Amino acid sequence: MGPVRRFLHRTIVPRSLFGRSLLIVVLPVVLLQVLLTIVFYNRHWDVVTRWLATGVAGEVAFLVETLEQTRDPEARARLLDQARRNFDLRLSFEPGGKLEGAARAAGMQGGLLAHIDNKIVEAFETALDRPFLVDLRPVDPERIAIYVELEDGLLRVLGSRKRVTATTTGLLLAWMVGASVVLLLIAIHFMRLQIRPIRRLARAVESFGKGRDPGPFRPQGASEVRAAAQAFNQMRERINRFVAQRTEMLAAVSHDLRTPLTRMKLALELMDGDDPAVRELKADVDEMAQLVEDYLAFARGENREPIERIALAPVLASMGERAARCGLATEVAVEPELEAPVRPLAFRRCLSNLVDNACRYGRWIGISARRSGAHVEIAIEDDGPGIPEDQRERVLQPFVRLDQSRSRETGGVGLGLAIARDIVLGHGGELTLDRSAKGGLKAVVRLPL
Long-range contact list for 385-391, CB < 8 A, 24+ apart? Predict the structure, then answer.
């Protein structure tokens, strides 16, 4: 049952909440209509048709018995005339006529039963003890023809089709289907009103997840949707408050750390620059200052910068110039008029870290950007030693360095890729590492449009 259930969920059950809600409303209504049609209306049609046909069959049986008892042609003519006026039937008597001739004239030989309503035939079989024929296909579709063979001739009866079949069933079905359609339209309208706040909340959550603060969300709809909206507003406020507190704390830490480092730099400048100990101390202070700057940049995250929609071609061209200044051969390929919503300064810092990383270990760098569905993909690749596949996820973590392939003197403190990944995640995207076409490292930044 597992595969069957999964197949039904994938192919029949709608994926959207609106579709499933509509299915919950439509399916019982359709099943009810089908059951009513099969059980009630079908039986109603059968019963009414049987009673109507029995009435007409009784009138014909009365005429047959009366004609059998009356042999005078004038008396038979008066009887048929009275029956025409009182029974609403068109009657004619053919002396010496036979049932076989009537069947051939009606074109009903061979396959006759396929065109005869069983209920009508059963009613005439019960009322008549003479050979008869019921033609439900006369020239006029609003009438039926009944032929009864007497001892001395053939009685032909033409009657209205409404007298032997129920005509209200179709009207009842039309009213039933029409009322169901109206009720379904009303249900669809109110379901749309209930689904709309859920869709708005989903868009707000998706926007916030991509790093685009949508602002306070106004709760609407049912109580459950309002509760979810209020929970989202509280979560958003807590996250923003946490980020603000962290940024303020790090700003204070930055000031406290930079002040003594600045004093140390000034003191070292006043000392003898040729002293090896002074030179080593200056190098330690510079490394310490760079360590503080990298750490603060990673922890700050640049989340307060507003999002703007910018053209990617100029930004990536400047990154190519940055790599060229380092002495690398560069190739830049960007689809024309490609734009993306980003935080400009943070986005440039992310690309700068990736470009600097490629410049540090390669002699060639390729920068490309293309649109992929609802995302934009930016690839920065080099021809350096690359990163082993089993270490690519690990190097994206803070303070992780691959000493066996990248020495400490050529790199920083292991925060470049971590900062780039943090910025990309803040934009609702992802950063992945792969092998480039020239054997080096390929960093792919995927951002939503």
Answer: 385/361, 385/440, 386/435, 386/436, 386/439, 386/440, 386/441, 387/433, 387/441, 389/435
Cβ burial of 67 (10 Å; 0-12, 13-18, 19+) is buried
186-198 as b/e: b if 16+ CB within 10 A: ebeeebeeebebb
- DSSP string covering 157-190: EEEEGGGTS-SHHHHHHHHHHHHHHHHHHHHHHH
Are the CB atoms for 176 and 169 separated by under 8 Å?
A: no
Give 109's contacts (C-beta < 8 A, 6+ positions apart): 103
Q: Which two tokens stand for residue 35?
A: 């059951």
Give, for all 449 residues of the chain, the pLDDT tens digit.
456 556 555 566 666 777 777 777 777 878 877 777 777 666 666 777 777 778 888 888 888 888 877 777 788 788 888 888 788 788 888 887 777 655 555 544 333 333 336 777 777 777 887 788 777 765 566 777 888 888 888 888 887 777 777 666 667 777 777 887 888 888 888 888 888 888 888 888 877 776 667 777 788 877 888 888 888 888 888 877 877 777 677 667 766 777 787 778 777 777 766 777 777 777 777 777 776 776 666 555 555 667 888 889 889 998 888 888 888 888 888 888 888 888 888 888 888 888 888 888 888 999 999 888 888 999 999 888 888 887 878 777 766 666 544 444 555 556 778 888 888 887 878 888 888 888 888 899 998 87
| Residue 79 in tokens | 């009887």
Q: Give the whole-angstrom CA distance, residue 420 versus residue 418.
A: 5
User: Taking the mean position of all CA atoms in its chain, how far away is CA 47?
Assistant: 47
**In angstroms, what is the C-alpha Rg of the chain?**
45
- List, in order of start, the domains of the chain with CATH numbers: 17-166 (3.30.450), 308-448 (3.30.565.10)
Count CB atoms within 10 A of the CB of residue 340. Answer: 23
